[in-house]
Amino acid sequence: MYKLKVNRNECIACGMCALECKILQEDSSGKVEVVGEGIIADSEVGKVRNIVELCPTSALTLTEEFVNAAAKLTELKEKMQKPLTFTPPSADEYDFRLEDKDEYAEAITGSLSVSGEYEYDYSSSSSAESAGKAAFRDEIYSQAEALAQQVIVMYEQRRLNKVARYAETNGNYKYGVHQRLIKDLRSFVNESESYTGKKISLPSDFFTFRTRDTDYINERQDHSNDWLAGRIKEHLKPASEFYTCVRTDRTYEYVTVSHWFGDDTREKKYSYAYYIKPDSVARFYRDVARATWKAGKYTKQFCERELERFHKEIAQEWNEKISYLLRQI
Ligand code: SF4
User: Fold this and answer.
1) Distance, CA 52 to ligand 1 centroid (Å)?
2) 267 alpha carbon to ligand 1 midpoint, in Å?
């Protein structure tokens, strides 16, 4: 039997061979690698010899080796029936950690502003302060849920996507599992054909998996609005705890005052404004991130459930494909 080998140091990732030869597969750098043991079915030897000759850097070699096909087939069947194993990302990679709070807080900081700041419309410091507190409550504090939603979206983008979503990019966990299993399936089919000497007819979707949905994200998005509305308030400090961020300012002008007993006089007239201290508001943003973390601690469990579901479904699909292949050999 013939075996195909690749000298990866010589491969320049030109992509010519992988298109033509089903037991060669490109890795993320574009260099090719041999799927499985690289055994070439007798019927394919002529075609593969041509591919080897066309490689511009002579990175491919085809060598003849003695192979005990019957023993190899038994070995292969045993290998095919081994249960799947998975190495999911550790929870550190997708969990929302309290240490991340400041980073999330910084990302939402400054996204809200208060109207009416520094408008000297008030006749006393206390009335300006009351107006400032009301402005803080109505224009900043009331946005806590929307801000929490932003934190959750960032959290999903930064951490959860690689576990929860299916994306055809390196580093995406689900995509990685698919790639590995497709590679194994190709290798099993190739070896089965080589050891039995017969061409196996496969369904057109044999090398694809159905588990590509993003149920998690859809479920999560539907869920998060209701959930946030209900839970964020439980964990957020009351608005009054942030009122220290409201300050007042005073200015004056000279006005003419008429007196019933005599001459007019010019007197100072004070007016007051409120302003919101940005560094104190940052405390509120941090509290939103903290409250989101507290309310959202369940996302780790949610994520683990999603991984469990994915593993179960993909194992089921895998078993169906392996059973099909075993029936053909
Ligand atoms: S033809 Fe040769 S250089 Fe090009 S991808 Fe294949 S092995 Fe690499």
Assistant:
1) 9
2) 91
pLDDT at 130 over 60: yes
Please tell me if the CB atom of residue 59 comes closer than 6 angstroms to any atom of ligand 1: yes
Would you state the structure tokens that stand for residue 79, as one six-digit string? 């290998």
Residue 269 in tokens:
């007239």
40 within ligand 1 shell (Cβ under 6 A): no
Euclidean distance between CA atoms 142 and 145, whole angstroms: 8
Task: Mark out the alpha helices in 55-158 (DSSP H runs).
Answer: 69-80, 91-94, 101-108, 125-135, 144-155
- DSSP, residue by residue, 4-60: EEE-TTT-----HHHHH-TTEEE-TTS-EEE-TT-EE-GGGHHHHHHHHHH-TT--E
Of 178, 208, 180, give the one whose Cα is nearest residue 36: 180
Q: In the chain, what are the domains?
A: 1-67 (3.30.70.20), 74-328 (no CATH)
- Per-residue pLDDT of 197-235, as tens digits, reads 888 999 999 998 887 755 655 666 666 666 666 777 788
Full-model pTM: 0.70
